[in-house]
């Protein structure tokens, strides 16, 4: 099975780290109460920051926070089990698009943690195009918009949803999870159903 996989919010817990430091930056440095949409991961949609304030945060914190970010519990074990079972993993991530060196931080973290992938697509804004090109069987992502678009285009999608994120209606192309144990269960269920 070909599995497409996002990095931030799926393998690395960057989204949660980003929200924590974003809230601190907003309150302490900007002296604002600027959260306008708690259900958004994207900074430009989450806070009422100016473009200059957003870019100051990106430049000051993104790379530093990326280096501090840990793996999401269970990610390493489940990815390695699924690879041993013969599945192929293709990273499809927007990482590296805003801050180029963040891609290198992720690659280094994967080496340290002994996690390997079969192919990498970095700086991807349109994950649907890559998923179709690679003919992936299932995509794991934490973005509401990405999961919605992929599932509407009949690509099986696992929505790794943080409790604050917007919900999507589950159907034959979309399943929602909150941990890697659920991901393992869903992928194994799909594999056995398809065989």
Can you describe this structure?
- There is one protein chain.
- This protein is of the alpha/beta class.
- The protein has two domains: 2-13 and 70-194, HAD superfamily/HAD-like (Rossmann fold); 14-68, no CATH class.
- Helix content is 48%, strand content 13%.
- The protein has helices spanning 14-29, 43-46, 51-68, 75-84, 101-113, 127-134, 144-152, 180-194; strands spanning 2-5, 88-92, 119-121, 138-141, 156-160, 174-177.
- Strands 3-2-1-4-5-6 form a six-stranded parallel sheet, with helices on both faces.
- Strand 2, helix 5 and strand 3 form a beta-alpha-beta unit.
- Helix 1 crosses helix 3 (51-68) and helix 3 runs parallel beside helix 5.
- The longest helix has 18 residues, at 51-68.
- It starts with a strand and ends with a helix.
- The model has no long low-confidence stretch (mean pLDDT 93).
């Amino acid at each position: 099975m070909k599995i497409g996989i996002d990095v931030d919010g799926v393998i690395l817990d960057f989204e949660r780290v980003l929200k924590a430091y974003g809230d601190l930056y907003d309150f302490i440095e900007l002296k604002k109460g600027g959260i306008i949409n708690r259900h958004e991961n994207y900074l430009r949609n989450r806070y009422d920051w100016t473009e200059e304030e957003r870019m100051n945060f990106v430049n000051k914190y993104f790379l530093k926070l990326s280096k501090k970010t840990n793996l999401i519990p269970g990610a390493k074990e489940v990815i390695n089990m699924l690879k041993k079972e013969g599945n192929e993993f293709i990273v499809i991530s927007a990482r590296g698009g805003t801050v180029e060196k963040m891609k290198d931080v992720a690659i280094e973290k994967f080496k340290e943690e002994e996690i390997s992938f079969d192919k990498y697509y970095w700086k991807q804004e349109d994950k649907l195009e890559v998923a179709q090109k690679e003919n992936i069987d299932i995509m794991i992502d934490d973005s509401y918009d990405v999961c919605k678009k992929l599932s509407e285009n009949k690509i099986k999608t696992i929505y790794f949803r943080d409790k604050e994120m917007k919900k999507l209606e589950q159907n034959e192309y979309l399943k929602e999870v909150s941990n890697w144990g659920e991901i393992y269960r869903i992928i194994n269920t799909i594999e056995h159903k398809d065989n």
